[in-house]
Amino acid sequence: MGEATRTEIEYRVKEKISVREKACYGVGAMADALIWSSVSAFGTYYYTNSAGLAAGAVGTMFLVSRIFDGFSDVLMGLIIDKTHSKHGKARPWLLWMAIPYALAAILLFSVPQSFSPIAKLVWAYITYNLVSTVTYTAIIQPYATLGTLITDNQRDRTHLSIARMGVAMVGAVLLNFIVLPLVNGFGGDPSAWTKTFAILGAVAVALFMIVFKNTKERLGTGTLDMADTLGTADKKKSTIPTTKALKGLVTNKYWINRILFGLLVTISTSTTGVNIYYATYWLENDSIIGLLAIANVIPMVLSLILVTQISGKIGPRNTVQIGLGIMVAGLVLQLIAPRNLPLVLVGYAIRGFGTGLGTTLLLVMLGDTIDYGEWKNGFRTEGLIFSASNIGTKIGSGLGAALLGWCLAWGGFNAEVAVQSSSAMNAILVVFTVVPLVAAVLAFVLNLLYDLDKKMPQILSDLKQRAGA
To answer: Which domains can be identified in the chain, with CATH numbers?
Structure first.
């Protein structure tokens, strides 16, 4: 078996994962997009242009909050690994946290207008952390972990990742067409944001329930020879000690590579909050934000159609490398012609295609680091590895959002005027092109150091032999 390829390896999960289950798993990404992606896309704009908060203060709040959020992910990972219920260890959290998550989002977009500027900022800190650090972590980490508990088959894991990414893309386009029209339809005042997110929250709850009802956990926890044969009581006894699990995490060199990679690609792709500013002040038409989303997402969907075939031929690592190179090309084009709408759209399309190839397989690669950790240490900690991995993505998204606020403040952005200063305009352009360009180049360099693809056939072969021992 030393020369086995992935397709020749018999995985522990023999059951075929249906298209229906994969699709229902992907539906959770729509719930994610309707709330969290909307927060990412419009949060800064809401805080500066509706709630009246200073851009620099908002940027600092995003970064500070996301650092706390990253560490709460580690705690949530440990909680997931210690959860034992009739519904599994990740899946029940979708049931428990859907409504609290939606309510927290409504509060985030309900900054009281009668409050003083300091009181408004305190409200923003509390409610933003209630969403990101508490409720979002408690529902999205189990959702991500669920994908590794449904199956250990690489092809099925890729399909689950594609389903999640594909639905997320549809959600990203949808929110750009519905959020501002809903806000304007409700009157465009601060209370309109509250009403809009009450609707989005209700839909998100329903979507999470679809995931909960139509998915199944098939992989257990604990040491390999005990994993899927123990009853609930025995599984509790086999729980990995926290110190042992953390040691296994920090000595997993491939996980460390992926967490740093995730930080960089998240910075590169999490500056979408600048789009509304770019459309309003550089392209002079805020309704173009929907067109930007379509130009970005349609090529991304195309890349999802091709990513399985490409990855199957050249491996996830090389596929990601190609995607990052394409992203860089699109960003350079946008930087060259920032006011030329056709070229901006072409650049966004190129970025979108590259983003699909460059980021879709990250969850698959994290799944490989779980298998590597099991092979190296003799135990699996899916919840901890996936949740701790989000330290990188959470800090990355925090930096992306913070850089928007800081750059706006540095450039002297003034929400009260229709025509911005040249320094404010340059600040918007820097966040739209330069920040994601630098991050993508650094991610490209880091990905060159990742070589787990070459080792996976032998690792999976060894795990299969241990399971049969």
So the answer is: 18-468 (1.20.1250.20)
